[in-house]
Design goal:
Elements (H helix, E strand, L loop, with lengths): L1 H18 L4 H28 L22 H16 L5 H15 L6 H22 L4 H38 L5 H20 L2 H10 L11 H4 L5 H18 L2 H7 L3 H29 L32 H17 L4 E8 L3 E8 L5 H5 L2 H8 L5 E3 L8 E6 L8 H5 L2 H4 L6 E7 L4 E5 L6 E4 L6 H15 L5 E6 L13 H4 L1 E2 L11 H25 L4 H9 L14 E6 L2 H8 L1 H13 L5 E7 L9 H5 L3 E4 L5 H8 L12 E5 L4 E6 L4 H12 L8 E2 L23 H11 L4 H8 L3 H13 L19 H12 L1
Parallel strand pairs: 7-11, 7-12, 8-10, 9-15, 10-11
Antiparallel strand pairs: 1-2, 2-4, 3-4, 5-6, 5-14, 12-13, 13-14
Helix pairs in contact: 2-3, 2-4, 3-6, 4-5, 5-6, 7-10, 13-15, 20-23, 27-28, 28-29
């Protein structure tokens, strides 16, 4: 028996160690931490309801020491409150500091911890129930019920409806009252009975009853009063009195009147506010429902209700209309050459198969075990030499497959017509906001993407490799799918010949500045104004989204269509705007930072409000495609380029230098690179499409962008003769003689500083001697000779 006792000792000792883990000092320290942390949470949560709007921009700037939040506990308070209140349980999160403080007091004072777990369990039950209840009654106030309350209500209503959720909340309330507060029908009956008896005694009894009431109150402590026998002549009544007091005491302890008085100013007032908010928000929604029932949803296409989309017959059938001719001899020959070349370098192949595309055939090989992939990748030039083909591209390995791909151009390529792509089921049934059909992949599948999800597109490639055709394919796709009310184009064409065909659809699809004569921009100065105007449009749209309480253009337009937004408040249907810039390198060379800054701003912010950019350039160098632009253009297309450096600049990967041209392109959206044969749409086809659209009824004018006035224009102050510079006349003579308007010329000739020369140039512009600012170009001189200049000065004296 002694041996058995010894064996049991080691088993019992760990239990003792586990139960007495914390020393008294550690308990005090841990308790104080809990208490202080609960105080911090309480002040953070309370402050959050007054400062959450100001602190929204600070949530992502936690590591930035220069940024400060309005919350009482600065960025810590703003972030932790956003997590628990907005993303969590709303106002019910205030129970959490209460639970932490109780736990801290238990530890700090060294009390028994028997009731702590029960308090935490009931605390969480209260948190969840209050969150769901507030989420149900305050749908429009997410800060009251939090994201948990909102999402739980949304989930439950999908399955049980509003009545089902209300019944579940009532069951939760009954569960809390029964299990926690010992609620029962008998308790209520006895409580009512006791109140009834006390009221009857008030009316029937006199002074003796009042003394009896005074005696009943101290009985809850179990004290015996000497006056009880005098007040109650029958001893049988005393136990019944004790029973009644006990029941009423239990009832009062569970739902004490004092607690009710504390809670009443808070909970009912919040509930009343919620009801008011719901009523206020229900009124416009009910009006919107009535309007939708009477008039239907708002249809932005009604103004051009008879508009007909372009028909397929406007597009030509190029080549064999998409069917690929299979040359068995070529396939077998290429396969044998690939196997033989790899065999020469002692690389065995376990399996090989071919996928025939319009212009390229993909040979997928599975190397034998133990073969390095890098070894095959380094044989790219050797395989190209053995196949005597241009544009060999090795994909090692193919993403999502356990194979290595070798792309070999076909000797007889097939033209992918725009007609075959537009007519495809994938494009016709595409449920996208801005669908674009680029062409066909190596597996001969139509490649369709959504411009709204890109959200911007960057195109690059050497001259004559298919950039302009690619832009035409993008614009044609949108013309075939979208109504003029749904999308507008801002076209920039420095070459002045590529996009001129789209002038015919100016009043249908194009957007321009109010004072602009032509919708298609060819002058760089107008491009700067237009891009800055789009920034103003972007800010205006964000203001409308803020008023409508939505996050993106799709949600805003849906809300407007369902008549939930009042046009009298400035709301209107917002079409998508697509900014297309051809030859971006030329624009950067002439305008520089003036155009790069607003374009970068649009690329960063405009995606949510439906402004999307498509930029094309011949020269994908780092000074044209800067880091800011690349960071905001995840979707990129590379046609054939001349060097691997250009390929890496546009795609961040090599491969574009191995393309074969004529529409052969690589597309990436930040992950995999896909090889596509761009659909071919010829100039006569685009002309027929624009004529077909242009011949139909159009809007009175092209879509007007917000007005923008450049900062370089002269002011009324500059035109004041009395405030002109003392060297104004000398500077005017220098400019007229040289017929070159620039501040640097005035600096050199008159030996002035840059600031003074700049002011004189502004004054000369205001006087009508030189033209407006044109980027890096010299200003135009309006005065031809000195005689005309003298006449201007003589007229000013008069």
């Amino acid at each position: 028996m002694a041996k058995k006792a010894k064996k049991t000792k080691p088993a019992s000792t760990p239990k003792k160690k586990g139960t007495f883990k914390l020393s008294q000092q550690n308990k005090i320290l841990l308790g104080s931490i809990f208490i202080l942390f609960s105080i911090a949470l309480f002040f953070s949560f309370v402050s959050f309801y007054f400062t959450w709007q100001d602190d929204q921009s600070m949530l992502s700037e936690f590591a930035n020491r220069n940024e400060k939040a309005s919350n009482l506990l600065n960025k810590f308070g703003a972030n932790i409150s956003h997590f628990f209140i907005y993303k969590g349980f709303g106002i019910a999160s205030l129970i959490l500091p209460f639970l932490l403080s109780i736990t801290g007091l238990y530890l700090f004072l060294g009390l028994e911890k028997k009731g702590i777990l029960k308090k935490w369990i009931w605390g969480f039950i209260f948190i969840i129930w209050i969150s769901i209840a507030l989420g149900f009654f305050a749908i429009k106030r997410p800060l009251l019920g939090g994201l948990v309350g909102y999402e739980m209500n949304d989930f439950l209503q999908d399955y049980t409806g509003k009545i089902g959720v209300l019944l579940l909340l009532l069951f939760g309330l009954i569960f809390i009252l029964v299990r926690l507060f010992k609620f029962s029908p008998e308790n209520i009956a006895s409580y009512i009975k006791s109140k009834k008896q006390s009221l009857e005694s008030d009316f029937k009894a006199g002074t003796s009853t009042s003394s009896k009431e005074e005696i009943v109150i101290p009985l809850d402590k179990g004290e015996k009063n000497i006056d009880v026998p005098d007040a109650y002549t029958h001893k049988e009544e005393i136990p019944s009195i004790k029973k009644e007091i006990k029941l009423s005491d239990d009832f009062e302890v569970t739902v004490p009147e004092e607690e009710k008085e504390v809670i009443k100013p808070e909970v009912p007032e919040v509930a009343m506010e919620v009801e008011k908010v719901v009523e206020e928000n229900e009124e416009p929604s009910s009006i919107a429902k009535k309007l939708v029932e009477d008039f239907g949803e708002f249809d932005p296409t009604l103004e051009l209700g008879n508009y007909k989309f372009p028909i397929l017959d406007l597009l030509d059938k190029h080549g064999t209309t998409g069917s690929i001719t299979i040359n068995q001899e070529e396939l077998e020959e290429n396969k044998n050459k690939i196997v033989e070349t790899l065999k020469n370098y002692k690389i065995g192949i376990a399996q090989i198969k071919a996928t025939i595309g319009p212009t390229v055939t993909l040979y997928e090989i599975v190397p034998e075990a133990g073969v390095r992939i890098s070894k095959i990748k380094n044989l790219e030039d050797d395989i190209a030499l053995s196949l005597a083909a241009l544009g060999i591209r090795i994909i090692a390995p193919i993403p999502g497959k356990g194979t290595i791909g070798i792309e070999v151009p076909n000797k007889n390529s097939t033209i992918v017509s725009m007609r075959s792509v537009i007519a495809s089921k994938k494009f016709q049934e595409a449920e996208m906001e801005l669908p674009i059909a680029f062409g066909k992949t190596i597996s001969n599948e139509t490649f369709v993407v959504d411009l709204a999800k890109m959200p911007h597109l960057l195109m690059a490639g050497a001259t004559g490799q298919g950039k302009s055709v690619g832009l035409n394919a993008v614009l044609t796709s949108l013309l075939y799918k979208k109504h003029p009310a749904e999308v507008k184009f801002v076209l920039v064409d420095p070459k002045k010949v590529e996009l001129t065909l789209f002038n015919k659809i100016e009043r249908h699809f194009l957007a321009k500045l109010p004072d602009s004569a032509e919708a298609i921009l060819t002058d760089n100065a107008k491009v700067i104004n237009t891009v800055n105007s789009l920034c103003i449009e972007m800010d205006d749209r964000y203001e409308l989204l803020k008023k409508a309480m939505v996050r993106n253009l799709k949600e805003y337009n849906h809300k407007f269509k369902t008549r939930k937004l009042n046009p009298e408040d400035g709301h209107k249907f917002l079409p998508y705007i697509v900014l297309v810039i051809d030859e971006f390198a030329d624009l950067i060379m002439t305008a520089g930072k003036e155009v790069e800054t607003p374009i970068a701003r649009l690329a960063q912010l405009a995606r949510a409000i439906g402004i999307h950019l498509i930029i094309a350039t011949q020269r994908p160098s780092v000074n044209v495609i800067t880091g800011i632009i690349k960071a905001n253009f995840p979707a990129r297309i590379a046609f054939r380029v001349t060097s691997k450096i250009d390929s890496r600049t546009i795609l961040d990967a090599s491969g574009a230098d191995q393309l074969i041209g004529r529409g052969d392109m690589l597309y990436t959206q930040g992950n995999d690179v896909t090889r596509i044969q761009c659909a071919f749409v010829d100039t006569p086809e685009v002309e027929k499409i624009t004529e077909y659209i242009g011949s139909q009824r159009a809007y009175p004018e092209a879509h007007e962008l917000p007005e923008y006035s450049g900062e370089e224009s002269g002011t009324s102050l500059d035109n004041n003769i009395s405030e002109r510079d003392a060297m104004f006349r000398d500077a005017a003579e220098v400019i007229v003689i040289a017929q070159q308007g620039s501040a640097s010329l005035i600096q050199r000739k008159l030996k002035l500083g840059y600031n003074r020369a700049g002011r004189i140039i502004d004054q000369l512009e205001a006087a009508g001697i030189v033209g407006p600012f044109e980027g890096s170009k010299a200003r135009q001189v309006y005065v031809p000779d000195m005689i005309a200049l003298e006449e201007i000065f003589n007229n000013e004296k008069k």
